[in-house]
Amino acid sequence: MYIIMAILGFSLLIIVHELGHFIMAKANGIKVEEFSIGMGPEILSKKGKETQYSLRLFPIGGYVKMLGEEEASDDERSFSSKSPLRRISVIIAGVTMNVIFAIIAFAIIISNRGYSEPVISKLVENSAAIESGLEIGDRILSIDGSKVFTTTDVSMGIQMAKGGSVDLVVDRNGNKENITVTPRLVEEDGSQIYQVGLYYTLVEKPTIIQSIKESFNETISLVTQTYKSLAMMVTGKVNFKTDVGGPVTIIKMSTEVAKSGLISLTYFLGFLSINLAVFNLLPFPALDGGWTVILLIELITRRKVPDKIVGALNYVGFMVLIGFMIVVTLKDILFPISL
């Protein structure tokens, strides 16, 4: 049952993403030849007025096939016949829908559970926080130069410092104060983590406006953290065996989260939706970000990038992505992440 919920949840993110492309394609008068959920062999298919709707075997992706997307077409309803701005609007619509989904999901959760503000409500005795000069009522504005949107930003900054000191900027009665604090390694729930010894202010019953505002903060925070994680992968600061997961890990994690209840699963789907959006915006061929770069070049130079070049880039990019997916999936099987 939980596995089914996890697969359906992951599939929902794909539907949301592809629905964005589909809606904007229709809005721009582009003919959509196929709307597919999943990849690989076809399971179900139904022909609409002009679009074929398909369900495929592997729930690891999906696509919207538009007329003139892969090759030039003189048809006025083709993707290739539209202006760069119109095509960009179609390409980024999927990412936009993923972000909107996350914002709505977080707002629903926050309105029910409340949230913590990065405002100190209590200090632990003899803690690093007290020694550093932090005070009750201080609002943490930044950590090591990075703006703080949620309390998670502070926690992440402390853990990433790995025991080194962190520089905080706090708002104290309207004045900005610079505080340097050195976290201490403590044991919590069987694992060792770094802490400074403080509690945050809890907003138990937020208003609708507060829920929406905090939802935006949560979304921005996750986008920032995701980009930082990608940068750590590129620089080799992330262990591929223990810290990187693919489809198998995602489904396993979703299944475990589903056991904790619908609210937890909803948050996790919002988290995955942001990751999907960020990944798709990377300027890599075959991804939405790669397409956007090509269209921006056309917009600036006012010259169309040759279809052969676009086709070759997308083909190579697609093959690289498939190869990476296979490697990550094998890694999931051979070196599973402990949950």
UniProtKB/TrEMBL annotation:
Subcellular location: Membrane
The keyword Membrane is assigned to this record: yes
TM region positions: 88-110, 261-278, 312-330
Top enzyme class: hydrolase
PDZ domain sequence ranges: 119-174
GO molecular function: metallopeptidase activity
Main location: membrane
InterPro entries: PDZ (IPR001478), PDZ_6 (IPR041489), PDZ_sf (IPR036034), Pept_M50_Zn (IPR004387), Peptidase_M50 (IPR008915)
Keywords per UniProt: Hydrolase, Membrane, Metal-binding, Metalloprotease, Protease, Transmembrane, Transmembrane helix, Zinc
Membrane topology field: Multi-pass membrane protein
Known cofactor(s): Zn(2+)
Enzyme Commission number(s): 3.4.24.-
Pfam families named among the record's database cross-references: PDZ_6, Peptidase_M50
NCBIfam families: RIP metalloprotease RseP
Entry's family note: Belongs to the peptidase M50B family.
Annotated protein name in UniProt: Zinc metalloprotease
Organism: Clostridium saudiense
Gene assigned in the entry: rseP
